[in-house]
Amino acid sequence: MKFEKTLLSGSNAMLILSLLSDGDKYGYEMVRELKRRSENVFELQEGTLYPLLHALEKSGDVKAYDKTTPAGRERRYYHLSEKGAQRLQEKIREWRFFSEGVNTVLGAAAPSLG
Amino acid sequence: MKFEKTLLSGSNAMLILSLLSDGDKYGYEMVRELKRRSENVFELQEGTLYPLLHALEKSGDVKAYDKTTPAGRERRYYHLSEKGAQRLQEKIREWRFFSEGVNTVLGAAAPSLG
DNA sequence: CAGTTTACATCGACAGTCAAGGTATGTCAA
DNA sequence: TTGACATACCTTGACTGTCGATGTAAACTG
Questions:
Q1: Residue (of A48, A36, A47) closest to A9 by Cα position
Q2: Of A79, B31, B65, B74, which sees the most CB atoms within 10 A?
Q3: Distance between CA atoms of B21 and B2, rounded to whole angstroms?
């Protein structure tokens, strides 16, 4: 099933931070992990992810460091900072507030929603 | 409480259609009604609403007609078409699918969400 | 009769996302 | 060893949705 990409707006940062709250990860890994965790609902594009990671790094929500695998492959890992963890909690609150608001409006018009 | 405006992206059309599923309404009315129904969570801007209504009219999801109040005030009412009603149902499905996806990802990282 | 509310509308700017493309290296099978 | 594919990072230009500001005009209110 597909849904409008625009629904995603603003939630990607939250989802990224959420992934990182479970342990340090590198970009490419996040794309797969997000897809896996959401049961294929979300397919984060790299063109969205990398600029987002850079922005999160700049704002201090994540810290980046490089690491090379035994095989010799370079990876850029991201670590959730204390600030980022707080930001995640705030975003989760916002999300719940927002989604409940939507459901309230929908429920008012169509009580059979469930 | 505030939340990122960008979270709204894509959901406004659904909310508008939802309002209209409850009966014909004019623009200005929708702004107040949405605010009321969502318990002040959503404050739809007129600069967002009117272009959106025009787009929905163009796509055939709503039909517009003019009506003058006894007081002499002109109003442009919008009526949800059959096509619009179907579109609303589709958008609601998308929304539920999307929000459940988000909650799944958040839940995986923070099981204490409940 | 001045100020506020109602009512519709447009404009320029901005943020988030995407598709497409670019670079480079490791893996694996023919 | 060559060619295809997966990994891994990144940038660019375009598009969409929203916002804030602003405009216009009529009706209500003190």
A1: A48
A2: B31
A3: 27
The domains found in chain B, sorted by start residue, are: 10-102 (1.10.10.10)
Q: Hey, is A38 helix, strand or coil?
A: coil
Give the pLDDT confidence of A75-92 residue by residue, as tens digits: 999 999 999 999 999 999
Q: Do A10 and B14 touch (CB under 8 A)?
A: no
Q: Flag whether residue B110 sits within 8 Å of chain A, measured between CB atoms.
A: yes
Quick one: three-class SS letters along chain B? CCCCHHHHCCCHHHHHHHHHCCCCEEHHHHHHHHHHHCCCCCCCCHHHHHHHHHHHHHCCCEEEEEEECCCCCEEEEEEECHHHHHHHHHHHHHHHHHHHHHHHHHHHHCHHHC
> Would you call A19 and B109 a contact, using CB atoms and an 8 Å cutoff?
yes
Q: Is the pLDDT of residue B1 over 50?
A: no
Q: How far apart are CA A38 and CA B105, in angstroms?
A: 6
pLDDT above 70 covers what percent of chain A?
Answer: 89
SS3 state of residue A54 = helix
Packing angle, helices A27-37 and A46-58, rounded to 10: 110
The tokens for A54 are: 């850079």
Strand ranges in A11-105 using DSSP code E only, listed in sequence order = 25-26, 62-68, 74-80
